[in-house]
Amino acid sequence: MDQLVKCEANTAPLTPLTFLNRAATAYASRTSVIYKTTRFTWHQTYQRCRRLASSLSSLNITKNDVVSVLAPNVPAVYEMHFAVPMAGAILNTINTRLDAYNIATILRHSEAKLFFVDHQLVPLARDALNCLAKDPIKPPLVVLIDALDAPRGVRLSLGELEYEQLVLNGDSAYEPHVVEDEWDSIALNYTSGTTSAPKGVVYSHRGAYLSTLSILMQWEVGSYPVYLWSLPMFHCNGWTLTWGIAARGGTNVCIRGTSAGEMYRAIHDHGVSHMCCAPVLFNVLLEARPEERTPPLAFPVKVLTGGAPPPAPLLKKMERLGFHVMHAYGLTEATGVALVCEWWSGWNRLPEGEQARLKARQGISALCLAGVGVKDPTTMKSVPHDGQAVGEIVLRGSTVMKGYYKDPAATSLAFNGGWYHTGDAGVVHPDGYVEVTDRLKDVIISGGENISSVEVESVLYSHPMVAEASVVAMPHKHWGETPCAFVSLKKEEISVEMKIKEEDMISYCREKLPHFMIPRRVVFMGELPKINMKTQKFKLRELAKTLPPLKEEHEQQQQDLICSTSASHL
């Protein structure tokens, strides 16, 4: 055994770039990308990526340089997932929902050398670049991504470079950068920055490769999937499916927006088989006008959802429409998916409601991780697998981020004790499946009782008139804090909103929850504030602090606690 050695024949650095090389050979004539009237094959996509990488090199983009992009799900962003690392550089996809200040913060912190901007986002990009005007660092070179189907000739007045021109001018025979160390960085993704400055999360080639294979296997993605880009590619590089669809020789259906009409039209026109989205898009699909979802789905569409725990009632409604939902849990720092709710065939015999409840759980470890635990954050001891004891979800493995860019202190804190600390509270059920109960910071402590906002939200979602619900803590002079619910009604119910009273919602919850968990206030909103498709609970918490004092007496609160027989959740 000691005579066996590593060599080029038996060892190669893991990188998702190999998926494109293989697709160009194994699936050369198959359709790789569909966008409006544009079609590319895998051979063409490979050639376009090589040409773009060649042009990047001619612009002196070299190893470890950061290339940023601000654009929706257009073919250019998909191609950059391969072309940028093919030039040895690091791809930074920027959240298009951020404001100019946060975009400028990302450009400044990443020291991006090149900045690709979609033609519709020019005003936002210009404002961000103006924020950098007084910086001592050199601003990035700007490249416009013009409309692929009908170029508009828009310019930023900061340069004349244009995406398609770079592709055209590049060398199709360009030899891509050779990845010699799989620990090299492939992507830089920034957290939302909703409560603090955005943090840069660095991915390795190895982590991206393993995460890609893991999700393909656990989601059971077969050959030639037709994948709808309803999930932004700036979300953890599309949960690594930017690289994964190439690995399976599938077709990427790119769309600029996620309106109900746009998604249903793409599903019908192109035979979409797979899509990903946050649960908030379920409401968009469910509330589509009859003409938007006509005819009914011809075959099931497999949906991978994550980003927030989907309430069981919402999952049940999606299944009835023909969307077969699998729930996953992940975060930017985990290179996407960390837990997958793998489905047991025996569960198909269970009642519909019980199936939805099981699907709402986050699941078991992704194959790419070495370990997932739910531990007491103080002692780091694992909690019992009883579905009751709550701890913090922690992760370890090659797909956990390399660390936070330029922030060793935050990296050290996140990796304390040899695990990545997610900040999410959860339980482990007897079958080993993990269920998120809340963000640790979102747990509501009322009179010594710990309340899961997720559990209260699930009950509110079961109300036939509710489209969205979010529950946060509001101050209470006797119990410290108490639940406050913010509710958005379905579109068809808005006209009768005045008929729905706060006490009606509270009474509905009273029938389904222990008394101490019942929201003491219910506030109706047109739409809940969001970023990254997630509700901004910190804004709702601030709003809850401004609400007038509760009318109920201290004695009623005390009686509710006495009546409750539910055990504490933490």
Tell me what you see in this structure:
It is a single chain. The radius of gyration is 24 Å and the shape is globular. The N and C termini lie far apart (51 Å). It is built from 18 helices and 28 strands. Helix 11 crosses helix 12. With 570 residues, it is of the alpha/beta class. It has a domain at 443-563: 2-Layer Sandwich (GMP Synthetase, Chain A, domain 3). Residues 455-530 form the AMP-binding enzyme C-terminal domain. Residues 550-570 are annotated as: Disordered. Pfam families: AMP-binding, AMP-binding_C. Belongs to the ATP-dependent AMP-binding enzyme family.
SSE topology:
Elements: H1 17-26, E1 31-35, E2 38-41, H2 42-58, E3 66-70, H3 75-86, E4 90-93, H4 100-110, E5 114-118, H5 122-131, E6 141-145, E7 161-162, H6 163-169, E8 185-190, E9 200-204, H7 205-218, E10 226-228, H8 236-239, H9 241-247, E11 251-253, H10 260-270, E12 274-277, H11 280-286, E13 301-305, H12 312-321, E14 323-331, E15 336-340, H13 352-359, E16 364-365, E17 369-375, E18 391-397, E19 403-404, H14 408-414, E20 420-428, E21 434-439, E22 444-446, E23 449-451, H15 453-461, E24 466-476, E25 480-489, H16 502-510, E26 521-525, E27 530-531, E28 534-535, H17 537-545, H18 554-563
Parallel strand pairs: 1-11, 3-4, 3-5, 5-6, 6-7, 10-11, 10-12, 12-13, 13-14, 25-26
Antiparallel strand pairs: 1-2, 8-9, 9-19, 14-15, 15-16, 17-18, 18-20, 20-21, 22-23, 24-25, 27-28
Helix pairs in contact: 1-2, 1-9, 2-3, 2-6, 4-5, 7-9, 11-12, 12-13
